[in-house]
Amino acid sequence: DVKVTQSSRYLVKRTGEKVFLECVQDMDHENMFWYRQDPGLGLRLIYFSYDVKMKEKGDIPEGYSVSREKKERFSLILESASTNQTSMYLCASSFLGSGSVGDTQYFGPGTRLTVL
Amino acid sequence: ELKVEQNPLFLSMQEGKNYTIYCNYSTTSDRLYWYRQDPGKSLESLFVLLSNGAVKQEGRLMASLDTKARLSTLHITAAVHDLSATYFCAVDMFLYGNKLVFGAGTILRVKS
């Protein structure tokens, strides 16, 4: 079974703190993604990466950065946390472009971040 | 910009009834995914639809894709309480490295 793990299930931080969210996958997937999930808005893509040291902005990258130094690990960084970044953060991974079978994204359990 | 719209956003139904959730999207794509999310849990893949006319079934759920109409449906047959969850559709912008655009989700509550 594919396993995507995230470093914390719940996190409480103060405004202005630097926050690191870690994601690790064990299926040798090329693609990794960070989303935030807010009620009524579905999932919105923050950043994604299709290879080590590669990153692409998603729909809402402002206030976030990412790091991918190893294939299995993708980190999301909030340089200076703000209250409007209080949300559920979901990491996902998938194979790169297999075409015939689709590229299902497999999700981690999520990190519920509260910024006070 | 690709937009994905689901309706209804909230669905309360009695056990034993049938209903359909609709997923419309705004630009060409022939790959669509359905996910389920239980409260407090992460997303679980339900169906992958890869071509026009694709139909997949699992238990009481059946998903279909009409790429010409840019529409996917998730049909629930004889609903049971265990189907209560939030259902998301997501459209694959294949040209951008498997980037998915998600609908807002449909909260399904099946009443006994």
What summary fits the major beta sheet of chain A? 7 strands, mixed
Beta-strand segment tally of chain B: 11
Category from helices, strands and their pairing of chain A: mainly beta
Instruction: Count the E strands of chain A.
Output: 11
What is the share of helical residues of chain A? under 10%
- Content of β-strand of chain A: over 45%
Q: Largest protein interface? A: A-B, 29 and 26 residues
Anisotropy-based shape of chain B: globular
Low-confidence stretches of chain A: none
Measured distance between first and last alpha carbons of chain B: 41 Å
How far the N terminus sits from the C terminus of chain A, by CA atoms, comes to 37 Å
Q: Which strand-content bin applies to the residues of chain B?
A: over 45%
List SSEs of chain B in N-to-C order: EEEEEEEEEEE
Kindly report the oligomeric state of this protein.
heterodimer
Low-pLDDT runs of chain B: none
Our count of helices of chain A gives: 0
Global shape of chain A? globular
Helix/strand-derived category of chain B reads mainly beta
